[in-house]
Specification:
This protein is of the alpha+beta class. The longest helix is centred in the middle third of the chain and has 15 residues. The chain is built from 16 helices and 24 strands. The N terminus and C terminus are likely disordered. The strands form six sheets. It has an eight-stranded antiparallel sheet. A six-stranded antiparallel sheet has the order 5-6-7-8-12-13, with helices on one face. Keywords: 4Fe-4S, Glutamine amidotransferase, Glycosyltransferase, Iron, Iron-sulfur, Magnesium, Metal-binding, Purine biosynthesis, Transferase. InterPro entries: GATase_2_dom, Ntn_hydrolases_N, PRTase-like, PRTase_dom, PurF, PurF_N. This is Amidophosphoribosyltransferase.
């Protein structure tokens, strides 16, 4: 199976990915700073959240310029491009598609012209009432292929009718259901909004406070603030709209908070050096590993992680069990999205394109292999085979999340329930399927305890099927809005003049 642009399906062993988040978003208001370069580095720090396309919109107070293309942040932008994106205000986006095809037309930021100027918008998350919102569009603005484009059109239409963008957002956002961390802008103002459940992380930072420049930054994760030298101020609250301009930061409430932060962010999605709602992600993952060791001990010689996402939990497992920690697998850091299809010979090598075993470490040893999750089981099956080929005496798989039993409708591209191996096989059957000597998952309550978040403030739907927002599964789907899939047409510049 391949994508329409010729890329391999990530379901194939050679490049099978873990669960993917919808996107990363970044915004900066900082007169006197090179905002395009700040945004570039912010997106670079958020690259793990989306690798299909990247884009930046900037404004100098007179016009908005948008540049976006397919590929990684470092592939889309160069020094000359960034130098052409001048101004005091910028937003940026890196995308993994959960609504709409991975093609240039669906790359973000989206851009539309209203009566008083332009509107550019970037979105992390996934909406669950997209058909209802699309029906609100006037005829001339129909034909959107993503939930983000629908949202942008609705805001632009209200602004075109004479509403301020701020008032349009306060009126529209209470009608929007699902996960959204939004950055958007007109020629002079940066806006940031978070859904009432706060499903995806979103933070506000202060830039250059000591130098007196007084800039402001918003980002999907605190790690992106660290990269650009911004100080974390606080989380953007669920149900809050921030308005940032020359008068500073103004907060408006468009809905009451009903916090349901995504628990899977702590398991896999977020960077380990990020802090979410006061809890460091790496510390959470190490603690999960400790709890996993106490819950599911085994006699073994070494604990090895599946790099990189399994490493913190493996450290915790080794610490709590007293079994030595070792790096038994070497990861090729440069394997990600590829436009080259491997030959059948290379395809048969499977996971070795990503990971290669250290035979000297593994041979003759009883191994505890710690990974973050099992979705379809293909990766674990290939991994266990590879370790046995390298001479492992026993392979005991330990997973630092509970079984993934249900799909996510809020911005994680999990498989359908029919494809989720844990929804169809028992733990013992999965162990047999992947040829492991044993398999065990951390308990959901132990994971919640490690996150140090109140249980009633977490979305755990992928693990327990309890969705914080009622979802009509028949109205969902990645290609719901698309009548036809286009193909990438290359980068372009879009401009608006006030």
């Amino acid at each position: 199976m391949s994508y329409s642009d010729g890329r391999l399906s990530m379901d194939l062993d050679p490049l099978e990915r873990g669960p993917q988040d919808a996107c990363g978003v970044f915004g900066v208001w900082a007169p006197g700073e090179e905002v395009s370069k700040l945004t570039y580095f912010g997106l670079y720090a958020l690259q793990h959240r989306g690798q299909e396309s990247a884009g930046i919109a900037t404004s100098d107070g007179e016009r908005i310029v948008v540049y976006k293309d397919m590929g990684l942040v470092s592939q889309v932008f160069n020094e000359a491009t960034l130098d052409s994106l001048g101004g005091h205000l910028a937003i940026g986006h890196c995308r993994y598609s959960t609504t709409g095809s991975p093609v240039w037309e669906n790359a973000q930021p989206t851009f539309y012209t209203a009566r008083e100027g332009g509107l550019a918008l970037g979105h992390n998350g996934n909406l669950i009432n997209t058909p209802e919102l699309a029906a609100m569009l006037p005829d001339q603005r129909r034909g959107a292929t993503t939930d983000t484009e629908v949202l942008t059109n609705l805001l632009a239409d209200r602004a075109h009718q004479g509403q301020s963008l701020e008032d349009a957002a306060v009126e529209l956002l209470p009608k929007v259901r699902g996960a959204f961390s939004l950055v958007f802008m007109d020629e002079n103002t940066l806006y940031a909004a978070r859904d009432p459940q706060g499903i995806r992380p979103f933070v506000l930072g202060r830039l250059g406070e000591t130098s007196g420049s007084g800039g402001w930054v918003v980002a999907s994760e605190t790690a992106a603030l660290d990269i650009v030298g911004a100080k974390v101020v606080r989380e953007i609250e669920p149900g809050e709209l921030l308005v940032i301009d020359g008068d500073g930061v103004r907060s408006r409430r468009f809905a009451p908070t009903a916090r349901k932060g995504c628990l899977f962010e702590y398991v896999y999605l977020a960077r380990p050096d990020t802090t979410i709602n006061g809890r460091n992600v790496n510390s959470t993952r190490v603690e999960v590993g400790r709890r996993l060791a106490k819950e599911h001990p085994v006699e073994a010689d070494l604990v090895i992680p599946v790099p990189e996402s399994g490493t913190p939990a493996a450290v915790g497992y080794a610490e709590a069990s007293g079994i030595p920690f070792a790096q038994g697998l070497v990861k090729n850091s440069y394997v990600g999205r590829t436009f080259i299809q491997p030959s059948q010979t290379l395809r048969q090598l499977g996971i070795r394109l990503k990971l290669n075993p250290l035979r000297e470490v593994i041979e003759g040893r009883r191994l505890v292999v710690v990974d973050d999750s099992i979705v379809r089981g293909n990766t674990q099956r290939a991994l266990v085979r590879m370790l046995r080929d390298a001479g492992a005496a026993e392979v005991h798989v330990r997973i630092s999340s509970p079984p993934v039993l249900w799909p996510c409708y809020y911005g994680i591209d999990f498989a359908t329930r029919a494809e989720l191996i844990a929804a169809n096989l028992s733990t013992e059957e999965i162990a047999e399927s992947v040829n492991a000597d044993s398999l065990a998952y951390v308990d959901l309550e132990e994971l919640i305890a490690a996150s140090e978040q109140p249980k009633n403030e977490l979305c755990r739907a992928c693990f327990d099927g309890v969705y914080p927002l009622e979802v009509d599964a028949d109205s969902q789907g990645k290609y719901l809005l698309e009548k036809a899939c286009g193909t990438p047409e290359g980068s372009t510049l879009a401009t608006s003049h006030k």
